[in-house]
Amino acid sequence: MRMVDLIEKKRDGHELTTEEINFIIKGYTEGKIPDYQVSAFTMAVVFRGMTERERADFTMAMVESGDQIDLSQIEGIKVDKHSTGGVGDTTTLVLGPLVASVGVPVAKMSGRGLGHTGGTIDKLESVNGFHVEIDNKEFIDLVNKNKIAVIGQSGNLTPADKKLYALRDVTGTVESIPLIASSIMSKKIAAGADAIVLDVKTGAGAFMKTLDDSRELAKAMVRIGNNVGRRTMAVISDMSQPLGYAIGNALEVKEAIDTLKGEGPEDLTELCLTLGSHMVYLAEKAKSLQEARAMLENAIKDGSALEKMKVFLSSQGGDASVVDDPSKLPQAKYIIDLEAKEDGYVSEIVADEIGTAAMLLGAGRATKESEIDLAVGLVLRKKIGDQVKKGEPLVTIYSNFEDVSEVKEKLLQNIKISTTKVEPPILIHEEIT
Ligand code: URA
Ligand code: CA
To answer: Coiled-coil region(s) at which residues (predicted)?
Structure first.
């Protein structure tokens, strides 16, 4: 087989065979096919697309390019949740203990990553003593015992995707539904889940800015999952403004605790109940989505979700007393309100720019080497549709430096106020199975 023939075949709009796709992925992972040929190939995919069969094959070829996590020693159906980006997305911190409290095994492998705030592991490390450096046996034992554990990323998962994503990034070939969908799904499948719930964000703060694009991506991922034998569904949810109020590491842990107590932001609570219901249903712990939702609502009401958070934190070395006393979380030195400059209704909160403001405070990583300040971040005091009076706080800034004028300016530029009444955005647009 020659790579040049496969590039031409795709360029001319033909479907590649399974063997041809395996040849490309294997050859690229092993360094036998050079970057320039693979970049020509990905550009051909950008223009020509891939059939449903090609997408499934492409995904599995990437899964098989490296290690796959074996979760077979964990009892029950393992359901993983994946969110496609977003700002201040606290859902993972809430959903883990919430679904675990009704018996769904949560075996989470997580990373740190770059972004507006840290990853799930960074956030959890704002709890004193909490650590994810556990070995595989302890990880599996903890999930069997408590139904929940988080382990740091290890092993060599989907090396083909790592190489390919880096190449796409510098060759203008990220924007392709088949390439994005197979990239995301390969990582989830290699991580060992039996079933997958996808939270595909849409809007200004999301990877996909329009509902049409988000729907197409969601459908593509759901098809790939189901075609390779993992039950998969997707929820398309709003990211035109940040989810919940808090954007920051310790601040989001506190927000997650509030939500598990039933005192969280309305949108975060609703999204967690929706995603959680699908997880419980796919794990076959409930016969219907309604039953699943009732179980989760009850776990919040009777305190079992909160109790599960304590067990989870303490079983990985964390000081679980933060759950009852969040003032034990890292605290910022300065707490400064940003006040509204005029009367009106909040009409826009540009999510990614608000995320950048949190980064200016030190809440996230710009490069792999950057240090995160766990204490700092933002708490929105108003969301889209809320009425606001001049002088009322719009955002509370948690900072470890006193001069936050740059942050304030960025926030003011990106929180728009209108004189006419504004409807809040729809939170959940569609569910795709
Ligand atoms: N996120 C991924 O993991 N892969 C893509 O291709 C795009 C976004
Ligand atoms: Ca949040």
So the answer is: 282-309
Residue 131 annotated in active site: no
Q: Are residues 124 and 148 in the same domain?
A: yes
DSSP code for 172: T
For the chain, how many structural domains are there in total? Answer: 3
Residues 219 and 131 grouped into a single domain: yes
Q: Which amino acid is at 129?
A: G
> At which of 303, 325, 347 does a domain end?
325
- As for ligand 1, residues whose beta carbon falls within 6 Å of it are 165, 174, 179-180, 183-184, 207
The half-sphere exposure of 297 on its side-chain side, counting CA atoms within 13 A, is: 8
pTM of the model: 0.94
Do 302 and 342 fall within a single domain?
A: no
Q: Is residue 306 part of a domain?
A: yes
Contacts (Cβ under 8 Å, ≥6 apart) of 135: none
For residue range 49-84, list pLDDT tens digits in order: 999 999 999 999 999 999 999 999 999 999 999 998
**Residue numbers of the domain that contains 364:** 331-418
Known active-site residue 53: no
Ligand 2 (ion): which residues have CB within 5 A?
88, 90, 244, 246
Q: What confidence tens digit (pLDDT) does each residue in 216-266 have?
A: 999 999 999 999 999 999 999 999 999 999 999 999 999 999 999 999 999
Closest CA to 223 of 58, 104, 68, 107: 58
- Closest ligand, as measured to the CA of 200: 1
